[in-house]
Design brief:
The structure is a single chain. This protein is globular. The protein has an 8-stranded mixed sheet. Strands 2-8 form a two-stranded antiparallel sheet. Helices cover 30% and strands 29% of the residues. The protein has a single domain, classed as 3-Layer(aba) Sandwich (Dihydrofolate Reductase, subunit A). It starts with a strand and ends with a strand. The protein is of the alpha/beta class.
Amino acid sequence: MTGRVLAQQWVSADGFVAGPDGDEGTLFATVDAADFAASEVHNRALLGDATEVLLGRRTYEIFRGFWPEADDQPIADLVNGLPKTVFSTGLDEAPWGRFAPCRIARDAVAHASAHRTSGTGLAVVWGSISIMHALLGAGQLDELELLVAPAFLGTGTPLAGAARPLRRVDVQEWPGGTVRVRYAA
């Protein structure tokens, strides 16, 4: 058995992962509460199979300000309990509140490659668009899961860089109109 790497991204229907100022809140403001509930159910199952969460530095900084104190969130126990690796050339430590600190690695591609050959289960990349792009470009991403919100942002941070064919392996529509699509990369 080999390890797998899956990247999950929220994205607008016109392909943006964040608004014009780089703030993901612009996108999340368009998502129906029923779809957030559906994503929590889905992510509970996904994280139940995960052995590690992979984060870029910016996503880590956002997450560490929320998840360690988010005891009222349905998936907080899983998010906080899973080992996490932060990819950064500038961090020397990566605390996670009262939970185990995150590991720090410099090279996301090398880390994912080692994970994929080690047979250690599923590593999930959350947010961290630059990490997703690096892994996709290096052939170290097994699956890409898009949570497509039914809204146009018009401008912002685009999901995609270079053209690349994908093969759809699963699709599900949620009550508020978000569509979850998983692709083999």
